[in-house]
From TrEMBL, chain A:
Example of a GO cellular component annotation carried by this entry: plasma membrane
Subcellular location: Cell inner membrane
SMART domains xrefs: AAA (SM00382)
One Pfam family here: ABC_tran
Cell membrane among keywords: yes
Domain ABC transporter residues, every copy: 12-260
SUPFAM superfamilies: P-loop containing nucleoside triphosphate hydrolases
UniProt name for this protein: ABC transporter ATP-binding protein
Transmembrane regions listed in the UniProt entry: none
Bilayer topology annotation: Peripheral membrane protein
GO annotation, biological process: peptide transport; transmembrane transport
UniProtKB/TrEMBL annotation, chain B:
Gene Ontology biological-process entries: transmembrane transport
Localization, UniProt: Cell membrane
Keywords, sorted A to Z: Cell membrane, Membrane, Transmembrane, Transmembrane helix, Transport
Protein name in UniProt: ABC transporter permease
Family membership noted in the UniProt record: Belongs to the binding-protein-dependent transport system permease family.
Gene3D superfamilies per UniProt: MetI-like (1.10.3720.10)
Keyword Cell membrane: yes
Transmembrane segments: 12-30, 96-121, 133-150, 183-203, 244-270, 290-316
Cellular component, GO annotation: plasma membrane
Entry-linked Pfam families: BPD_transp_1, BPD_transp_1_N
Topology in membrane: Multi-pass membrane protein
Start and end residues of each ABC transmembrane type-1 domain: 97-313
SUPFAM superfamilies associated with the record: MetI-like
């Protein structure tokens, strides 16, 4: 069975997240739709502030209910998550969907041992003795590759290195064998060598546990290595989504071109200079209905002030007015071999 | 480890010696002060003053006087009052201590419970009317002088509403020993407890709310929620547990200072003959031996409370355990 | 491999503080930002108004005593008579309580004269309340200035120079710290009140207002000096100071340019909080009759005067207490607001 035939685990449709601010409601995430199949790795890419973390938090219902409004549909195994009452939601959190935070330093409570924190999660969802929960914690810590789990289980977070802490966070997220892991920039706070180890771990866990993973990152290198599919977010919208290979081969959205242009190629001739996209992303309160990227886009035109159309090509979809063959021609000017020197 | 403990003990000793020396200096070496003249009274003859000077040993060098007095206070324990001659300092302090301890301990129970209640409820109902109301009440508690609040309480319970059902049980001011009259002890102290606690409930409630609100911004709280824990568990085991660390520090210091005699305003208003009042009377009468005795007692509690806070800190915060 | 940082803006998500004046963004100067933040906060504005009212009415004490109450609030008035509801009545009336012996001062008339009644000396309590407020505010303000200046000097010296200077200053602060504040204040007050103090050419007599000012100004120095020292030490290790040192900028310029501005923000945050603390302290000392000395008044001394009248004429003790609570409350509200706006990290101890 190929990935595309597996049943859909999480289906997000028209997700819109708005914050109450002094200037009224500001939409941080607008009309975002994507789906994750079982055992699949979906990567959401974007700059800081593009709305990727907000998207993730609202999936788990972790947003501040007083100041945040979430509209749209989020279905987990066919069940709408947004309408669940708090106790039903809690049964999904931790058990069905595990969260891996960005910074393992701050994600763990400093005053409890690693083992205690893992056991706490297990015991929140299963009727099991403290001792059995701790035994499971030791197993889990071994599973995520800690060399001495017996000892690590009684350690406090500050007694472990960054990489070990992130493994402990992953062990905790895995502790109830969730169908979906949500990882919010799990490697950003780590050293480069440790980053690679943690990515390998995630890939292995997908194989061993069959968990689907939503991987949030701003690191295109990570995306190309592990993701099955990619969603590119910009200014609160998913501007392009599709299968990883296709997207890296022929990105549709000019913003994606910029992202690709910023990756140093591993093979072939070297770029004279990595490219950056000029300008800054707009703040959420400055985004109208038009294309959010238009102000920075070299190819923007008056029509971009209107809501951009969704264009699908094969497995890819992009929110952009450009159409073939103009798009391919323009893309060549940006990502053409002449640029390589 | 042993070295750290010894260092700590040395530090405590240093602070206590420093305080006793400071009191001594305040009374003997302030420019223009003459203890003999003051003890003799305003219109005493020079001969009387001279006699007192000899009698009390004020004609000796200051360091000698200091050593003699400290020796009589701690080693022979026969230091007697200047004013009520024959009254020994150590038993007088020992007699007053239970009163102060009863007052402060009862108030501490109230203010810890009240402070945690106010802080937790306000943090949970953040930015609602309930939160605002609690914070205004806490601020009012902080803003009222404790002795004035005591007077208002006396006015209500002893006079204006004493004949109503609410306060007819309130006994007249004074202290009843716990061992001989536990019910009387409780009844005489309950109003002072609330009076003294009002200020601290305000302070602790405000501090705890701020700490909790800060804690809820932390990643580990988000982790705890993402684990599927109940809101109560997130609050109690995660947010409150970490916020209690500064709370414990504050409590240790406040408790030490109050047991040491800083509850004197409450003691004065409610006619409780505790250490604070004893200190105050001794100070008013310039009864230096008594002052030294009470101040040493006070600083002992402060220093011990400081040390205890350090120990508790190590117990409740694993991060400081290594260092 | 990451997106180059020049396009990633970490602040992109935090909406800027809007300013009610159209289009302009708040944020240029931290002071201006703080001012605008505070101006929008209703409790802060209310607290400021209450404080201004209290200060203005205290300052107008002589006017009130001279033209409205028409009595000298510093002299006994045991035989005075005033007109209430068209009738001439004695200020000191025959007691109706107990055996009917002695006299009880007149209660609140809620008129021009003896608005809040009289104290045991037959003095107009309302007029004394205003005069008392003047002293309470004066003492609290001056003591705050003394405390902050001393604490800043000590804290900056200890923090900036470190080494043996820091050791000595810190040990002295440790001792003062372990000395319960009220005991220290009372000890100093009692000793100094009886004989005054002579330091070289300066002579302060026992009944001078300067005594409580100096005493209250000194006792809280460790509470402010410690956080100042901590902040200075942290700043000394901060990147920008290290960078400045690396560039060979002299120490005094680092002190003036980098450290002083930061510490002064901190001190400003302390001002209202110290004022509140000092008002309470002054009133407590005066209540124990070792603060402001008769015939001068402060809110604390009036409460003390009212103690004997508590059950018969409670207004005498209640009114100054309410004045204290209101002032301290406003100062605390203002203090919270200034701290939030300027320097949320600052904590008094």
């Amino acid at each position: 069975m190929t990935a595309a035939e597996k049943p859909i685990l999480l289906d997000v449709n028209g997700l819109t997240v708005s914050f109450a601010t002094d200037r009224g409601m500001v939409k941080a995430v607008r009309d975002v739709s994507f789906s994750v199949r079982e055992g699949e790795i979906l990567s959401i890419v974007g700059e800081s502030g593009s709305g990727k973390s907000v998207t993730l938090l609202s999936l788990l219902g972790l947003h501040d209910r007083k100041t945040t409004r979430v509209d749209g549909m989020v279905a987990f195994r066919g069940r709408g998550i947004l309408d669940l009452n708090p106790s039903e939601l809690r049964r999904i959190r931790g058990r069905e969907i595990g969260l891996i935070s960005q910074d393992p330093m701050t994600a763990l409570n400093p005053v409890y041992t690693i083992g205690w924190q893992i056991a706490e999660q297990i015991r929140a969802h299963e009727a099991i003795s403290a001792r059995a929960a701790k035994k499971r914690a030791v197993e889990l810590l071994g599973e995520v590759g800690l060399s001495n789990p017996q000892e690590a289980v009684d350690r406090y977070p500050h007694q472990l290195s960054g990489g070990m802490r992130q493994r402990a966070v992953i062990a905790m997220a895995l502790s109830c064998n969730p169908a979906l892991l949500v990882a919010d920039e799990p490697t950003t706070a780590l050293d480069v060598t440790v980053q690679a180890q943690v990515l390998d771990l995630l890939l292995r866990l997908r194989k061993d546990f069959g968990s689907a993973i939503i991987l949030i990152t701003h690191d295109m290198g990570v995306v190309s290595e592990v993701a099955d599919r990619v969603a590119v977010m910009y200014a609160g919208r998913i501007v392009e989504r599709g299968e990883t290979e296709a997207m890296f081969k022929s990105p549709l959205h000019p913003y994606s071109w910029g992202l690709m242009g910023s990756i140093p190629p591993l093979t072939g001739p070297r770029l004279a200079r990595l490219k950056s996209i000029p300008g800054m992303p707009p703040t959420p309160d400055r985004i109208g209905e038009g294309c959010g990227f238009a102000p920075r886009c070299a190819f923007a035109r008056p029509a971009c002030l209107e809501r951009p159309p969704l264009r699908m090509i094969g497995t890819q979809a992009a929110l952009c007015i450009l159409e073939e063959p103009e798009r391919s021609a323009l893309r060549r000017t940006v990502l053409s071999p002449e640029e390589f020197a | 480890m042993i070295f750290a403990v010894l260092q700590r003990l040395g530090q405590m000793l240093f602070v206590m010696i420093g305080i006793s020396a400071l009191v001594f200096l305040i009374f003997f070496a302030t420019p223009g002060s003459d203890p003999a003249a003051r003890l003799a009274g305003r219109n005493a003859s020079p001969e009387t003053v001279e006699a007192i000077r000899k009698d009390f040993g004020f004609d000796r060098p200051l360091p000698v006087q200091y050593v003699i007095m400290m020796n009589r206070l701690f080693v022979t324990q026969d230091l007697t009052s200047f004013v009520n001659r024959g009254m020994r300092v150590v038993p007088a302090v020992a007699q007053a201590a239970p009163v102060t301890l009863s007052l402060v301990a009862g108030a501490a129970v109230l203010w810890v419970i009240g402070g945690i209640f106010v802080g937790v409820v306000a943090a949970l109902s953040r930015d609602t009317l309930l939160d605002r109301g609690l914070m205004v009440l806490a601020l009012i508690g902080v803003s009222m002088p404790v002795y004035w609040l005591g007077e208002v309480m006396n006015l209500m319970t002893q006079s204006r509403f004493h004949d109503t059902v609410f306060f007819s049980w309130v006994p007249s001011l004074g202290y009843k020993p716990l061992l001989t009259d536990p019910w009387g002890w409780f009844k005489t102290l309950i109003i002072p407890w609330f009076t003294l606690a009002a200020l601290y409930i305000g302070i602790y409630g405000r501090v705890l709310r701020a700490n909790l609100v800060e804690a809820y911004q932390e990643d580990f709280i988000r982790t705890a929620r993402a684990k599927g824990l109940s809101p109560t568990r997130v609050m109690v085991r995660h947010a409150l547990r970490t916020s209690l660390i500064p709370f414990v520090t504050m409590f240790g210091l406040d408790f030490g200072v109050l047991v040491g005699g800083s509850a004197l305003l409450t003691e004065v208003v409610f006619g409780l003959n505790g250490v604070g009042r004893l200190t105050y009377q001794a100070l008013l009468n310039l009864d230096l031996p008594m002052v030294l005795g009470t101040v040493m007692y006070a600083s002992f509690f402060v220093v011990v409370a400081n040390a205890l806070v350090d120990v508790v800190y190590v117990l409740i915060d694993p991060r400081v355990r290594e260092s | 491999m990451s997106i180059p940082s020049d396009i990633a803006s970490p602040d992109a998500f935090i909406p800027d503080m809007p300013d009610e004046t159209a289009g302009k963004r708040v944020g240029a100067s931290p002071w201006r930002r703080a001012w605008l933040l505070m101006r929008r906060d209703k409790p802060t504005v209310l607290a400021a108004i209450v404080l201004v009212l209290i200060v203005v009415s205290s300052l107008s004490a002589p006017l009130y005593a001279g033209y409205v109450a028409a009595s000298d609030p510093f002299r006994s008035n045991l035989s005075a008579r005033i007109t209430v509801d068209g009738k001439r009545v004695k200020v000191m009336q025959a007691s109706t309580e107990g055996l009917g012996l002695g006299v009880t001062p007149i209660g609140p008339t809620y008129g021009a004269q003896y608005f809040l009644g009289a104290d045991t000396q037959g003095r107009d309590v309302a007029a004394r309340l205003l005069y008392g407020g003047r002293n309470s505010l004066l003492i609290a303000t001056s003591a705050t200035v003394i405390c902050l200046v001393l604490a800043a000097v000590i804290g900056i010296t200890a923090g900036f120079f470190g080494g043996i200077t820091d050791q000595i200053l810190s040990r002295i602060l440790d001792i003062l710290w372990a000395f319960p504040v009220y005991l220290l204040a009372i000890s100093l007050s009692i000793v100094l009140l009886s004989h005054g103090i002579v330091i070289g050419p300066i002579e302060i007599t026992g009944d001078s207002l300067l005594l409580p000012i100096v005493i209250i100004g000194i006792i809280y120095v460790p509470y402010v000096a410690r956080p100042v020292r901590g902040r200075v030490m942290a700043l000394k290790k901060s990147e920008f100071v290290l960078a400045a040192k690396g560039l060979g900028i002299p120490a005094w310029r680092i002190l003036v340019n980098d450290i002083l501005p930061n510490v002064s923000t901190m001190l400003i945050v302390f001002v209202p909080l110290m004022m509140a603390l000092n008002i309470i302290t002054e009133s407590s000392l005066s209540f124990l009759s070792i603060g402001v000395q008769a015939p001068d008044a402060s809110w604390g001394t009036i409460i003390q005067d009212g103690q004997t009248l508590l059950y018969t004429r409670p207004a005498v003790a209640l009114a100054p207490g309410i004045a204290i609570a209101l002032t301290v409350l406003s100062l605390n509200v203002l203090g919270d607001s200034i701290r939030d706006a300027l320097d949320p990290r600052t904590k008094l101890v």
